[in-house]
Amino acid sequence: MPNPIIDALKNIYPLAVPEIALIALACLLYLAGTWRRDRDLWGTVALVALASVGVVLWYTVPTRPPTAAEVYAAPIILDRLALLTKVITLIGGAILVIFTWYDISDKLAAEFYGCMLLILAGIGLTAMSNDLIALFLSLELISIPTYVMLYIPRRDDLGREAATKYFLLSVFSSGILLFGFSYLYGIAGSTNLSAIMDALRSTQGVDLPVLVLVALVMVVAGLGFKITAVPFHFYAPDVYQGTTASMAALLAFLPKVAGFVALARVLGFVVPAGPAAIAFGPHLPKLLWIVAAVTMTLGNVLALLQTNLKRLLAYSSIAHAGYMLMGLTVAQSLEATNSNVPGGVEAIMFYLVAYGGMTIGAFAVFSYLSTPEREVEMEDDLAGLGVSHPGVALLMTLFLFSLIGVPLTAGFVGKMMLFFGALSGKGDSGVLFRWLAAIMAVNAAIGAWYYLRIIAKMYLHRPVKPLPKTKALPKLMTLWSCALVTLVFGIYPKPLVDLAARTTPRLASNQSVAKASPHTAINP
């Protein structure tokens, strides 16, 4: 007689074929790099690998949603959130490979691109994780190669300081996250996410709120490092300043994708068995409200004080993490009221795409204008850019307008989705949600000041020493790719909005999954 649990475990291997291929290709790069040192060759291999994995992903998409047995037994599942996350990371990874082309020496190119493939594999596995152990290991597969990548392109004192700070704080955050996971396991007696949510729902009204609250705080704290949420943001300004612009762009984007997807999974916003965020009760939205408000406010206020461009974008990254946390804050209310306003997880997924385009694009401008003799680091370095490099200045203006949230840019659409999602939040915390929307509006105005300050430098100031003309084709390709993302999804956002909306239970619905208990679902 067939065993549904064994069948569910057997079915997970085809789902992980793209990630297995990325890991295998990374190992091949590590080995091949010992006999040939060629940046162009290994960069091309990495791009071909990502394109090939994209084709593999296209042909391995399952034709059915996960069964009840898979939901409660399989450590990984492939749903619409995982699919969208994989597509975002593969495209973003390809752009970052092109971006870093001239930043890596021939000697270390194979190791660098091998680490990048491992990070992308880790994000894909994080998006599919249906188990605490699988989720933790996937997050570590992202973190460990990042330590190496931080040290490869810049090996001076600032580079070593950036790599060391990131390593120490990342290890600390992993310990906190593991501590929170241990409490979830102790409460539920299982590492399966759906089983944990069922167990948490069953404790409503039972005298276990302290354990649940401790687990919630520890999990949010551990993943807060990934998304640079306050008070786990301290590393970002120093690390961004100490590394290259391309690595700062990578740190600003890829860990945020992993962090927000992991939060959506482990907090129960996207659970195959159905919406389960209510399992944490009223504590969850209140905790996320505080973190979101403090994060966006502190990030924007401190960014006002910065003149170093990398530090300014680091604090900007912190502020945008606060904006995205609004989506998780109101998601529980939107699920409970069956609201059609896209303000929850789907708004975060849209905003991650918009944020990746405008932030990577801004860092690409700094990298494109920099030379070995003169690195663009301070705001004054961009003075007169509108005259000396009018095309680049126009692209930089586009990215800054998107970061502000000016209409016809992807950043505007993302901010509106988050803003109206907060306004639509109902229930006991409805007033708090509207206050959060007001706080976001004030912060957007604060952020506009320092972004417009940069635009004023480019067009209203004369350069002390004009920047030299450069012809870095890979960086130009990065600039135009990011500009395309920013403009297309700002002018015509509907395809991405619809795709993101299908990732959440209340809109996509995993209704084909049996609504029975774990035991009745698994036993034949």
What structural class do helix, strand and pairing data support? Answer: mainly alpha
Rg estimate, integer Å: 22 Å
What fraction, in percent, of the residue positions are helical?
over 70%
| DSSP strand count | 0
SS element count, helices: 23
Strand content: under 5%
Tertiary shape: globular
Tell me what the structure shows:
Helices cover 72% and strands 0% of the residues. The longest helix is centred in the N-terminal third of the chain and has 32 residues. The chain has a domain of 228 residues. It is built from 23 helices and no strands. Helix 15 packs antiparallel against helix 20 and helix 19 runs antiparallel to helix 20. The chain has 524 residues and is mainly alpha-helical. It is globular, with a radius of gyration of 22 Å.
Which terms would index this structure?
globular, 72% helix, 0% strand, mainly alpha, 23 helices, 524 residues
Q: How would you sum up this structure in a few lines?
A:
The protein has 524 residues and is mainly alpha-helical.
